[in-house]
DNA sequence: AACCCGGGCGACCATCGGACGCTGGTGCC
DNA sequence: GGCACCAGCGTCCGATGGTCGCCCGGGTT
């Protein structure tokens, strides 16, 4: 039980640290500085309660390398994404961003299938891309689709849906600068925050009003960035 | 692990049995017979896979009677509900159905509070009555509200919202007959199934179109009853 | 061939929606 | 007072949404 408390404290600290880091990386694009204020995140967590000094044990993850008599087929990892311009095919063992965005459309199709099946069986019918949808996709032959991957880039797809122009320019810019996918992925947050501001800071509404986006959960980090910007300038 | 399989099998069987029982009890009102067919539920579960004979161990529930140095205040159980006509106050140590329905309205208020708080904090905002709402209600002084209670009667409240006339008549009828709350609670399903049929069997749509109901999850049992009726006569 | 960079996605976690039956309150005799 | 009925709600459970960093693919030297 004491052990459990420590685990939680460690997790919470780590979350805070990560967000701070990413905010540093994000400064360059926005021009108006920002987000070191993310230390504020502490406020979001009303737990307080002192302590939090200890930096607990490393959790051990991953399976012990395919071990013993495996039954399930071992899928090779997908090729990494690279920043490509619209229409540009990826060179080498890489995938381009058009393909990434297509994956989101595919998930939309899989969701529709799951919805039809659920309705037919009189079961409750998801309105968003859920675990069930990812499971269905995998079983139906799209083994290259998985939850963490899709989650990692939702906001990139959101920008693509809400403002293709800006999205395309950003891709072009980051490609020319030779930035990696991680940098582009981070950069996608800022135009979205601007869009949210123009929409009275209602990012959920932005998602819900768009046919393609409606089926995706608003990423936590995007929501937090919007909140922090709202608090900083304007309200 | 073998133990786990047995637990699951036992649970599943139990679920089936319960639904069958309730269907028997439900026949009386509808006039067109029904629902023994609930044995069909087996079809809903595509697991099949044989076995299912063993009727596993009793799970032990409940805390060991307030035991040792308790810290949390012990709340006395709420008075049971009795079937009352609209406007009729409950006699003795009982609560009436007007009060029951008022509890649902109160939950709606608590949901609104939770939504405002979430929006203010830039966190994701529930559109339904979630665990968080029950927690907020409890902490805010409505200790008499709890999840299982509200869940037990959602469909009764649904009938009240969607067709007060029918709901009121049912209350009057069951009161005069001297039926207990359980019987009335069961009886509430059938007018709802009829309403669903008139709405092309779309019970979710029925809930979603009603301002008061929209915030409540459609009860599994109601959804299943609709499905079974749809399969039996008509489609 | 050897190395290092970076990101794919397996696996974990808190919490959720959902369910059920044990306790114990209640009315009756 | 004693008893039998029955329903309130504590407590459990599988699955969900969300996350993080290990491991290894891939380009470069």
Automatic annotation (TrEMBL), chains A, B:
Listed GO MF terms: DNA binding
Domain called Floricaula/leafy DNA-binding C-terminal: residue spans: 69-233
Location of the region described as Disordered in the Swiss-Prot/TrEMBL record: 6-25, 39-89
Gene Ontology cellular component terms for the protein in this record: nucleus
Bias-annotated ranges (Basic and acidic residues): 66-80
GO biological process: regulation of DNA-templated transcription
Biased composition (Basic residues): 55-65
UniProt-annotated location(s): Nucleus
Keywords: Activator, Developmental protein, DNA-binding, Nucleus, Transcription, Transcription regulation
Function field: Probable transcription factor.
Entry's family note: Belongs to the FLO/LFY family.
Protein name listed in UniProt: Floricaula/leafy-like transcription factor
Annotated source species: Physcomitrium patens (Spreading-leaved earth moss)
């Amino acid at each position: 039980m004491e052990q459990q408390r420590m685990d939680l404290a460690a997790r919470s600290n780590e979350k805070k640290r990560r967000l701070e880091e990413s905010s540093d990386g994000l400064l360059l694009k926005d021009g108006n500085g920002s987000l070191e204020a993310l230390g504020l995140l502490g406020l979001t967590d009303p737990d307080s309660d002192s302590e939090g000094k200890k930096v607990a044990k490393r959790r051990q993850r991953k399976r012990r390398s395919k071990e013993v008599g495996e039954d399930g087929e071992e899928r090779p990892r997908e090729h990494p994404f690279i920043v490509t311009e619209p229409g540009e095919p990826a060179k080498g063992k890489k995938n381009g961003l058009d393909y990434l965005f297509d994956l989101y459309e595919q998930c939309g199709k899989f969701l529709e299938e799951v919805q039809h099946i659920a309705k037919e069986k009189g079961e409750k019918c998801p309105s968003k891309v859920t675990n069930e949808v990812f499971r269905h996709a995998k079983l139906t032959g799209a083994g290259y689709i998985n939850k963490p991957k899709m989650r990692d880039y939702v906001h990139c797809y959101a920008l693509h849906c809400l403002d293709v122009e800006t999205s395309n320019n950003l891709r072009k810019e980051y490609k020319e600068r030779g930035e990696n996918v991680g940098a582009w992925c981070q950069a996608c947050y800022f135009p979205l925050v601007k869009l949210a501001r123009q929409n009275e800071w209602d990012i959920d509404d932005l998602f819900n009003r768009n046919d393609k986006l409606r089926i995706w959960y608003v990423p936590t980090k995007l929501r937090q960035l919007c909140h922090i910007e709202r608090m900083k300038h304007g309200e």
